[in-house]
From TrEMBL:
Its EC number is 2.7.13.3. This is histidine kinase. Gene3D superfamilies: 1.10.287.130, 6.10.340.10, Histidine kinase-like ATPase, C-terminal domain (3.30.565.10), PAS domain (3.30.450.20). It catalyses: ATP + protein L-histidine = ADP + protein N-phospho-L-histidine. SUPFAM superfamilies: ATPase domain of HSP90 chaperone/DNA topoisomerase II/histidine kinase, HAMP domain-like, Homodimeric domain of signal transducing histidine kinase, PYP-like sensor domain (PAS domain). It is a multi-pass membrane protein. It is an enzyme of class 2 (transferase).
Length: 563
């Protein structure tokens, strides 16, 4: 017999016991209740009415207001006549009461009314005694039968309670002991039950589970656990602040570096909802709200430190299981970058003086008043002049970049005509265009308004665009300069029809020191476009590029008319 059948049999037996005892109990209780109710309703209440009438009758001569009390109880009694002889006695009281109302003070039949009321009370008291005797008989009978039934059912239930639990308790006890052994990593524990029911099946399953656990214990599981501990130790020793969150945004781990940054202890917040902790911690709130990489300035170890936040989603089968937030300390790099910027600015500034001297010397040598030079000397002088100009350009770009990096860009905004800016830029590159056999074309919309900009820096940007376009155009090619108005914006752009830029490099052309691969033969510092971007954005404009490999490139910028 399986456990279900055993439990069904046992519960059915208890159900029958409960039903039998309940039916008999309800039957006898109802009989006793009915008898008690009749005594209370039919007789005891009438006795109470009589008591109230007698009390009121004695007080009527001195207090006529008791007539109403008497009449009230009399009416109640008239509506509760249940015993033989009670009606006649009540009618007599009613008759005498009507006489009394005519002359309450000199009424001569007070004693007769007392006698009639006592008669009503006697009838009900006799009925109470009779009914009480009858109820007592029923109670004794009920007690006898219930005692017999309870004794029989109790013996049967006691026998059942003694024998049945052992059928369930014994295998459960053995299974519990087995589970405790498994919890203590005693995977050699086995349970032996000679039963053909669910407990027997459960014991077999338990033994199979224990065998598997024993197998896993001696497999790579222990190594994986050890590796997990090793990785946690490594994370805890890292200098970067690392926070682990699960899919419910609860804190999984908080390494030592993060404790120092946030002023929190891992043991105090592990398992807590991160947003609750962030209410009291401004830095944690900022980090949790930031979804993208962002540079943070944090006062740490009595100085300003810089950190870059990275957020890594933990995904498996396209389901996000949490994320890891890393705060990488870039303060040393910031310090090195500042030192580099200062060094470049210093060197560039120092180089400009001798370069100007070299340039001036070449101009003097070109003056025929200094004497004639032969062909070889002229070529050497031309090479010196070209390299000096190239070095001057490079030092100029480096100085501009150092200004940008130190935040010292100084703008001199004045109203300027767009066509004048284009003219100055084209004049500056005309010689280079002629040298590379490239034709310059301009397409400037007429009647353009003045724009409030730094003319020198804007011309510098346009010259840089034109220089690049000329360099990367084929001989005999064309470079076009366009200017037009769109609503409250003036657009400048330079288009060439050279080989263009491969798609994967287009988004990086404005990065510092970036040079498109394959163009080293005409490369410079890689700073020109980066400087151009900073100059335009400093004036509230926007720089952009469109390029299609094999067809050419277009570089441009937009400037607000009322910037």
């Amino acid at each position: 017999m399986n456990i279900k059948a055993k439990l069904t049999f046992g519960l059915l037996f208890l159900f029958v016991v409960i039903i039998c005892f309940g039916v008999l109990g309800i039957y006898y209780v109802n009989r006793l209740s009915n008898d008690a109710s009749k005594i209370l309703k039919d007789n005891q209440i009438s006795v109470e009415y009589c008591s109230q009438m007698l009390k009121a009758l004695d007080e009527i001569p001195g207090d006529p207001s008791q007539i109403a009390v008497f009449e009230k109880n009399l009416k109640l009694e008239e509506n509760n006549i249940t015993e033989p002889g009670e009606f006649q006695a009540t009618a007599e009281v009613r008759y005498l009461f009507e006489q009394l109302k005519k002359d309450p003070i000199r009424f001569p039949e007070i004693r007769k009314m007392h006698k009639a009321i006592f008669k009503i009370a006697d009838v009900n008291e006799i009925a109470i005694i009779h009914k009480n005797t009858k109820a007592s008989h029923y109670a004794a009978q009920a007690t006898l039968w219930l005692t017999i039934i309870v004794t029989i059912l109790s013996l049967a239930a006691f026998t059942f309670v003694i024998n049945f639990p052992s059928i369930i308790a014994k295998p459960i006890r053995e299974l519990t002991e087995g589970i405790k052994e498994i919890a203590n990593k005693n995977y050699s524990k086995r349970i032996h039950l000679d039963q053909k029911d669910e407990f027997g099946t459960l014991a077999d399953t338990f033994n199979a589970m224990a065998a598997k656990l024993d197998e896993y214990e001696h497999s790579n599981l222990a190594e994986i656990k050890a590796e997990k501990g090793r990785i946690e130790a490594i994370i805890n020793k890292m200098n970067d602040g690392i926070i682990g969150l699960n899919d419910k945004n609860e804190i999984l781990f908080f390494n030592s570096a993060a404790e120092g940054l946030f002023g929190l202890k891992e043991k105090d917040i592990i398992g807590s909802y991160a947003a609750d902790i962030a209410i009291q911690n401004d830095l944690l709130r900022t980090v949790l709200q930031n979804e993208t990489s962002k540079q943070l300035k944090i006062f740490l170890d009595n100085k300003e430190s810089f950190f870059v936040q990275e957020s890594i989603l933990i995904q498996a089968d396209h389901v996000v299981g949490g994320r890891v937030i890393i705060l990488r300390n870039i303060t040393p790099f910031k310090e090195l970058d500042a030192a580099k910027t200062n060094f470049i600015a210093t060197i560039s500034h120092e180089l400009k003086i001798p370069l100007f001297a070299i340039n001036m010397s070449t101009q003097l040598l070109e003056d025929k008043r200094m004497g004639e030079m032969n062909k070889d000397q002229t070529e050497i002088l031309g090479t010196i002049k070209a390299n000096a100009e190239r070095l001057l350009k490079i030092t100029g770009e480096l100085l501009n970049m150092s200004q940008i990096e130190t935040g010292r860009i100084q703008l001199k905004k004045e109203p300027a005509k767009p066509e004048v800016i284009v003219l100055r830029a084209m004049q500056a590159v005309q010689q280079q265009a002629t040298q590379f056999d490239v034709m310059l074309k301009e397409n400037v919309e007429s009647n353009l308004p003045h724009i409030n900009i730094d003319e020198e820096k804007t011309v510098w940007v346009l010259i840089n665009f034109l220089n690049n376009a000329i360099k990367y155009s084929s001989e005999g090619g064309t470079v076009e300069v366009h200017v037009k108005r769109e609503n409250e914006i003036i657009q400048f752009w330079v288009a060439d029809y050279g080989k263009g830029i491969e798609e994967q490099y287009v988004d990086r052309v404005f990065d510092k020191y970036f040079q498109v691969p394959g163009t080293t033969e005409r490369s410079g510092t890689g700073l020109g476009l980066s400087i151009s971007k900073e100059f335009i954005e400093a004036q509230g404009g926007k720089i952009w590029v469109n390029s299609k490999y094999g067809e050419g490139s277009t570089f441009g910028f937009n400037i607000l008319i009322n910037a």
